[in-house]
Amino acid sequence: MILGNFSAIGTAMANHLWQSTLFAIVAAVFTLVLRKNQASLRHHLWLAASLKFLVPFSLLVSLGSRLATLHSSESQPVFYFVLQTMSQPFHQDPDAQGLLGDFLLRWLPAMVAILWLAGFVTVIGLWWLRWRSVAATIRGAAHVSHGRVVEILRRVEKSAGIRSPISLRSSRASLEPGIFGIRRPLLLWPAGISQHLQDAHVEAVLAHEVQHVRRRDNLAAAMHMVVEAIFWFHPVVWWLGARLVEEREWACDEEVLRLGNEPEIYAESILKTCEFCVASPLACVSGVTGADLKQRIVRIMTQRSVDKLGFLKKLLLVAIGTGAVTAPIIGGLIKAPVAAAQAYRDTAPARVQSDSNTFADGQQIYHIGGDVSAPKLVYAPDPEFTERARRAKYQGVCVITTVVDAQGNPTQVQVVRHLGMGLDKKAVEAVKQYRFTPAMRLGNPVAVKVNIEVNFRLY
What we know:
about 450 residues; alpha+beta; Zincin-like; TolA/TonB C-terminal domain; 3 domains; 6-stranded mixed beta sheet; 5-stranded mixed beta sheet; about 15% strand
């Protein structure tokens, strides 16, 4: 099945990557607009751009189509109306299969799958090795229940609104202070660093780490790690990861300063931590020394007030976010009833008249919608496979346009989406045998033009 649908899968993936990349570009533009606002807001935008890679617009369109089907009066959704929009710039080449030949049809999908799997396993493997190293450090760390650092941590937790106490582990490793875990986060604290930091420095560092817990930054980082593993080949995904780390650290810095910590002391605590420790090898272990250190120190020392998000910007963000989710669903809802006319205009042969109705073989051809109901399929024989397609295990969908006359018979049968390997001819032969109950207008049978999916499936 993978071999037979390779071209269709490739087309769907190309559309998904194009849409997700465009979404990331739009997010980047909005982060520039919001550069004087809270870093947490920009972090949310980058995270939304990352998670978009896991949610194809086609799923939302399909959801809308399914909702439309539930409210449809038709007993069987046999018609396929193509809604041409910019969201689908890539289309399957009808002759590509014949040009590639049987050899490529058999081996190219497997080669691509092996290449992707190799990259996926490599990314996961590298992260697993790093995770084992950090996990081993955690297991060897000693639980700390009292002392100077614990007292400061509890005070900082209270000021940040953290109700569940964060477990503190002291380690002899040189890893920086960092939050480990998602469901039950714990703080890894280097054993010797307390001797190099004054209470104010310790409080600033702990305030930063507590903000990571409050913001659930490890969860956000883990979700993006899934995106990176699946789409390891796309440079935009890795660029998004760098932006997420950058904005999450700046967001924590802003909160630390907002809580009243002195910029000089906070900057000094970060530099002292860098002198004593090394950064965590995992993005989902939130430390204090992440992102571009020089830029962070400059921002901390040149502390400026963060602009509050104005009403217009809030309205625009809500409108964009809502539209990004609802527009594909609405498109799916209106696709069947509205796109019929568009599909007819795009695929119909030369017409005698330019008004909404045309004439063929003495019959007036109507459009489905309004007072014209759709014909209903009552007999549809399965299409036959060609021997060539059967040997190659080739499957897919061929789209046929036809006029269903007032007697329910298909006429003027033509292919509008080719499938190749001789299956187009087989699809035409099958559709010519279809029988319908005719479309109705004002109680009378009429001729209508429709597009029909002919599915070739091997079971």
